[in-house]
Amino acid sequence: LLFIAFFVYIGAGQEATIVRGRTLLHGTTAKDAMLTEYHTLPSGATLGEARDLLLKTSQTDFPIMNGEEVIGLLSRSDLLAGLARENEYSYVAGCMSREFETATQDEGLEEIAMDMQQNNIGTILVVEEQKLIGMITKENVGELMMVRQVMYGKNG
Known about the structure:
There is one protein chain. The chain has 6 helices and 6 strands, in the order ααβαββαβαββα. The longest helix has 24 residues.
């Protein structure tokens, strides 16, 4: 019985966290949490160039561009796997993920955050009229929630 009670307690705690998160994100949009200062890489960039950018910035996922069009997303794990499998002179286009999630800036952040959590998505690209205008990461969503928590606690 103690074992069952422990799992019920854990489940209730997780449910409370989910409800609190949904409350904090209610009424927000992708625009409220998206990064607007980020680095992209051209499809002809090398893994070495991506590695250097990873080490010089706090960004871990990089949109891969063909002109103005996003053609892929290079995650830190994709980059590391590519460096281990190939070499620093290989192109990012060979290691990037061609399947990535997108959202518009007016989409509800509550739904986006749930999708990120349920499907283990680290980054969603925000596009308008097929042009990249921002990125949403789990970290950004978490930071927005912390800010809103402080603001609600102060005003509530």
